[in-house]
Amino acid sequence: MPHLLIAGKLHPAGIAHLSTVEARGWSYTHVQSVDQNEMLAELPNADALIIRTQPLTAEIIASAPKLKFVSRHGVGYDVIDTEALSTRGIPLAIVGDVNSISAAEQAVTLMLAAAKRVNRGDQAVRSTANWEWRNALEAIEVSGKNLFLVGFGRIGQRVAQMMQGFSMTISAYDPFISATDWPSLSVKQLSSLEEGLEWAEIVSLHLPSLDHVLLGENELQRMTRGAIVINAARGGLIDEVALKEALLSGHIGAAGLDVFETEPPRADHPLASCDTAVLSPHIGGISNDAAKRMALKSIDNVLDYFADTLAPELIVNPNYSEAT
């Protein structure tokens, strides 16, 4: 009887869906804790693994002699050693486009909250002595503003669709998309990051993790004074110390961050005391609705792979087949 290990919490709909796993002749173990040791104790028995946020290193993979398939409960796989999986002939599958709506909505939420200075407005109501803050006229409208999207994949495209309802002028830059493959006639493709930064009044990041900071001190200074910066993509894309300095100086008017270089951020994080920065705990892709879809799809990916019906575009390490 093949055995499935689930490492991490599942939406209740996913828990209920595990009955399908048993109906297909599988046994399973569900380790809800994020404690790596608990996962490691169960891994040697696993033919397949569903994993949420835990790292999956070459050493951990080596401890799973029976492992044949890994299903990521999500779309990112920065902390998974895909080369080590490929060497063993083990495919890694993601859940596909199940959370782009949620992620796009989070970016838009941060954008509007930053523009309207929601933090300061909330404080003004809670401290009645500051009610007259409203007359400082710090809040701005997004309607009619220039929006620059850095990264124009599924999430960036959804953000563009949503913000077109605000009559924004939208441009985007994505080094991974050629001019002939550009997916939107209504969003202008820019040829460089610098061009967009100098043009934009609001910048929103929608790129995967990079091996370098994308927006550092120099890039932030290129932006129009009072511009808004949003990062609901990946931590490390923005120099957080430089962003704080730009916010304090007023060069950057406001910011919204759902991701951080180190997560969770420390209590003394540079932006923790900055009330023009709206912060959220990396929840862009894990709304209740998205979590349900991810749980169901991550389970189905396991069953589909062993039934030889898994969509090949969901496998992110195609070289795995060279080792089989």
Radius of gyration: 22 Å
Beta-strand percentage range: 15-25%
Order of helices and strands: EHEHEHEHEHHEHEEHEHEHEEH
Q: Helix coverage percent of residues?
A: 25-40%
Uncertain runs are none
Question: In words, what does this structure look like?
Answer:
The chain is α/β, with parallel strands linked by helices. It has eleven helices and twelve strands. The protein has helices spanning 12-23, 36-42, 58-62, 82-88, 100-115, 118-126, 154-163, 193-199, 217-222, 240-249, 288-306; strands spanning 3-7, 27-31, 48-51, 69-72, 92-93, 146-150, 169-173, 188-189, 202-205, 227-231, 252-257, 277-279. Strands 8-7-6-9-10-11-12 form a seven-stranded parallel beta sheet, with helices on both faces. β3, α3 (58-62) and β4 form a beta-alpha-beta unit. α1 (12-23) packs parallel to α11 and α5 (100-115) packs across α7. The chain is elongated.
Jot down its keywords.
seven-stranded parallel β-sheet, alpha/beta, five-stranded parallel β-sheet, 15% strand, 324 residues, 11 helices
Quick structural gist:
The chain is an alpha/beta fold. It has eleven helices and twelve strands. The radius of gyration is 22 Å and the shape is elongated.
How do the helices and strands line up, and which of them pair or pack?
Blueprint: E1 3-7, H1 12-23, E2 27-31, H2 36-42, E3 48-51, H3 58-62, E4 69-72, H4 82-88, E5 92-93, H5 100-115, H6 118-126, E6 146-150, H7 154-163, E7 169-173, E8 188-189, H8 193-199, E9 202-205, H9 217-222, E10 227-231, H10 240-249, E11 252-257, E12 277-279, H11 288-306
Parallel strand pairs: 1-2, 1-3, 3-4, 4-5, 6-7, 6-9, 7-8, 9-10, 10-11, 11-12
Helix pairs in contact: 1-11, 5-7
